[in-house]
């Protein structure tokens, strides 16, 4: 009940948070979806006007017919602006930098972000110069968070936790329009909040932050004397875009509530209209148009269609450009390492001109279409370019709106006659005269691609000043992704030009020599290939999906120490005549490509080779020198291999790049890559993992040389195999049904057997039956699979969801559960019959209980043996673990909700061994009881042994799937554990067969004969015969059974119920 109440409390809290976060704003109040309207007070307006007298003195009279008053709430709110504070000994808020993972504050500076919302406008009581407003400010210091959603304004307060601090301030104020600065719009507001209290020592004002538990009750001071002044441009333009703000304390410096002045910077959102009109500045950068630059080679086609702005917006929204290294720069270190016109921070300078992980975001894109003479389409374009340091979160940076020395406000023109977007850029805050507008930006959208041109957007930022100013022209690009090739852009028919096919052919001949094994592989195994579809383009597109990889990988061969996780992303850009992906809605005029593929003539082996281009990204600490590899070559569908020549995006220093004379467009194209795919057939027998081999063709003393890289992915699944009922899971499901059916048949056979051999029933070991019953009951209680544990891995889960939820798999799962229940019930029935037979035997000779078989010593002996075995396993595991490099391996249970410790993992593995050796208690009991009968039917103990051996046989035959990140895939054989191995897959079945043979011999020979056979001179393996468990004469036992006919009806009925 407590857990249920707790769950409802958590659910209720989440529901309240969602309700507040998704609330909408109505004119005159804040209305939640529940219909509760929040009213706003203006009880401090007189106090506001007194504090804002300097604003009212410069205010002009508001025109009665001015509609801008009605748009104040929508236009004058802003999100994620910047704030900074003068450092005079009175900081506004603390920041807790403790417990920050991996990156320290010395490398990554926290962001100072602020958002402001106009929550109400009181138009009913406006004066000649002002209108009363309510507002809410959220500001803070954070590493990666954003202030996108307005919090509950009824509770202005301060929050802090490691890595994040925020202050909420509620304001009342006035809106005015100034006589100066071209009629700028001004809001002056007086706010109240709970300020964090500073310590008296100015050298350590936030001493309380280091105290444990401060987040629950930080020391706060209530303050209602916070003055905020925000200044907005009347019309947004290139030279007048910024929102500027100032927040001051009205207290004296001696007051503990006083804080140093806070400055705010932002720009307005898309609801505010932009005014194009900076032709003079634009012509300064772009006249004559188009400007001649070196961003695009003459052989590249450029997009010149009417949808330029929509394409640019789709490719840049929430995205960022890659900065190209200054590989052509030949100058001083300061000149070649400078990030264009932007102010370079220490982390940018440390890249030494390679600009690794430095990005460039395009924000606040606005377009205005024009039509010129001669049907030439033209767009006036405005945007903000923001440089993103290497360690700053890329998504967070694209949402920021503050202007500083890492931003360029830009405006320019684009014409369809050339396809060039030429803009003038203004650094940071721009004055009305545009004195900081000394940068030129040229941007293109290419339509033709090659191994050296993989960018869907390319551009440069250069200086307008003579001799290129103080920096080398900065190049940027956005790499293409196949998923983006649709809509208006795809309608322009982008194309790919192959140039490395001959080199790839040489690589193919070197890696695929003629051999008998290769011939057998080609004839028996099938690999991804073109399928018979409505068109060849559709078939190529489906094959591209199968060849695309987005999966985890690890070194090949797998090292003994657990390697760090590496992510692989291999995108197929073009395959044969197809570029990107095929969409049925697209019209293609090539009749040959549209013809049904299966109707074409037969191809020779050479004709089956397909030209392919791709790009490979490797994300892992061990592969930091592989930023991106552009690939081009051949795919052989007969062996499932791609032979590729790679051009590596090198992120070395500008000096190394300049000195490397054999670079092609700044890329290292002396790279060979071979990608091997698993077959589509015999998936449960062949390892379903891809292998990637990367090697450099440079000399080892070359600074761009790298050691060969060999990677193996986690299991992958092709498109068709997601629906293939004969996939591994389907096969394992069928095997579970078959093995459980055989087990049920064995138990039924034993039940029928004891009906005809009642005298041997007491000599069946209950410990043996109990082990089997527990083995069946665990799946019913915990939900895990019986006999064959369901194999689960990241790759399977992410790619086979539809397959796992199919009706076929559900039917198998339900069938398995029913069969487990039947096997469990029959085993319990067998236990019941054995127990009752012993009760009857004891009732026949109550004075001789020692002559009735008992499992007391059997269970003690079994426990001793298995405890000793389990402890031995732990000792061996501990010794081997100390001899190996440290591994931070974690194992989870079947639900993956509980992390298992080492001893729990070994115990789970050992439990499987106990079930495999289920005959051990019977062998031990036969020795203790010195039997002269046959309690177990041969079909029962041999059949059950085969059932327990089948998973081991399957584990030996199936593909090993060496996946070190998900060891729970392995039911009996876990290569990451010391106890089970391929040797164990041989030893455990051998022991199980040996036990079955021992039971067979014990039942075939009587105890005396067996004891004589195992006597070697004076040495006896078995003890002398005892009278303890000597059976009573059979006739007497049978007489007892017959005597039941004379019992009373109730007793007779009880006996018959057995």
TrEMBL record:
It is found in: Endomembrane system. The keyword Nucleus does not apply. GO terms for cellular component: endomembrane system. Residues 48-263, 282-473, 512-709 form the DUF2921 domain. It holds the Pfam family DUF2921. InterPro entries: DUF2921 (IPR021319), DUF2921_N (IPR057425). It comes from the Eukaryota. Residues 1-23 form the signal peptide. Residues 721-1009 form the SWEET-like domain. Its EC number is 2.3.2.27. Keywords: Membrane, Signal, Transferase, Transmembrane, Transmembrane helix, Ubl conjugation pathway. Its main location: membrane. It catalyses: S-ubiquitinyl-[E2 ubiquitin-conjugating enzyme]-L-cysteine + [acceptor protein]-L-lysine = [E2 ubiquitin-conjugating enzyme]-L-cysteine + N(6)-ubiquitinyl-[acceptor protein]-L-lysine. It is a multi-pass membrane protein. Pathway: Protein modification; protein ubiquitination. PANTHER family: FAMILY PROTEIN, PUTATIVE (DUF2921)-RELATED (PTHR33389), PII, URIDYLYLTRANSFERASE (DUF2921) (PTHR33389:SF4). This is RING-type E3 ubiquitin transferase. It comes from Daucus carota subsp. sativus.
